[in-house]
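The aim of this short unit is practical: by the end, you should be able to scan a pair of folded records and say something sensible about each. We start with the first protein, listed as its amino acid sequence and then its structure tokens.
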Amino acid sequence: MTRFRPPGRTGTLPGTGKDPSLRRSLALFRAFLREQDDPDACYALLARDAVDQVEAYDGPVAGRVVADVGGGGGYFTREFRARGALACLLEPDARELGEKPPEGAVVADGYLLPLADGAADVTFSSNVLEHVADPGTFLSELVRVTRPGGLIYVSFTNWLSPWGGHEWAPWHYLGAGRARARYERRTGRPAKHTLGENLFAVHVGPTLRQVRARDDVRIVSARSRYWPFLTETVVRVPGLREFATWNLLLILRRCPA
């Protein structure tokens, strides 16, 4: 088991709860539109934005231990390291690491991370939950490796959002099989995702109930990750939140033992 050096600081800053700006949301949207043509620019911007969110709730990451779980090509890990964090990338699919993964990247199963209990000050997972068959076990593992009082950042694209079908959205509303077949006919190449294999129908309401039922974490914020307004309000409205949230961001704090 890997055990990291304890961090040098433990102070935290509370999140303000303030909605992000419209300018920020538009910049992210434009980057997403160019993802296929310029993935480096898209994911570098997303990484800067995500680390900004972490620091808004937990203060500067410099000198702190960060576990980036399911971080793919390492964009988030690189951004954490650029700000002075001791960040480790743990990715279950070696193909997702790309040709030049960050130094020290580890191929690791998200259900059984090779980290000691409480090893990380911040455990970070961006757009991974919808790709695991057992979200409850995955969340439990994120909590386990976070120290008491530490921050857990989890975001995911919920199934009923307009982007829930990923590359074959929004046709997933007509059925996953039909949407996937349409994508393959239109592009002439196989779809990356298959429902029930590497993409799962994860919903906002059940996820919130599951997290609220835990006694080892408390929810600091549950909000739409990308919207510029009413980010927490929309998540409180059953039904509507499944469509309008687009991407649910959970900021959790592990409770003291």
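Turning to the second protein, read its sequence before its tokens, just as you did above.
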Amino acid sequence: MRKRFSIAITAGRAHCGGVGRHSRARRGSRYFIVSILCAACIVQFATNPARAQCTARDVLQNQLKLKTRPAEVSQQLIQSGRDVATWKTITIGTFADPLGLRNKLDGMGCGIGGQAAEILARPTFILGSRKTDVELVLVSPAQLGFTSDTVTLADVYARARQLGFELAAAEVGPQLRIQYLDQPIGEFLIIGMEPIKTWSGEPIVLNVANGGAGLILIGQDGRAASEIHVTSRFVFARSHQSAPGTGPIDQAAAFLPP
């Protein structure tokens, strides 16, 4: 009897030991699978360039890497659009629909203001049907010849067109936000575009900005009578047609405010 009891205990220990080994093996297998999944996630995040490129830290890293400096604000009077150098060339028409564009901005960590988000969701916000490079210029109302402290948006647009610039497509705003990752702090660029109305009927234009907390796309008053400070900076598209007028000097003189 004592021998049989001893054998039973030994067998029980062997069985328990086997169960323990199997349990430890299963736990180890689970830990291994979890580790593989975590490693895959880390690799995915590390190799995904669209993630978190708009945060303040990422912008600083881009500026240091590219050794960029804030664009100097020239107040020299523009006599002709041909005399203004291209500031940036960006690509539009790279998204099939506005949702894909919005997801790209979200994935990069770019902020989107309430009015801008509403504009991107409006049926009148139309994307280019094909991939196109657009040359952009950067000008201020002061460069366009205005001398008062403020000027209306309508007057800025009229003068820009007369000097040979074009209004940018609405897509330029978010595309510039995506492609301008080293924007200096404190820079707010008004997109010279046809205003798009919100659901409540308020006309809005887009503004590509870096207020210090990261890169953001916001909306602002797009009424024709809205007052714009003369030192504000606008983004217009370069026109490849000659501006009207007999000559750049006569043209600039004719467009100076009374």
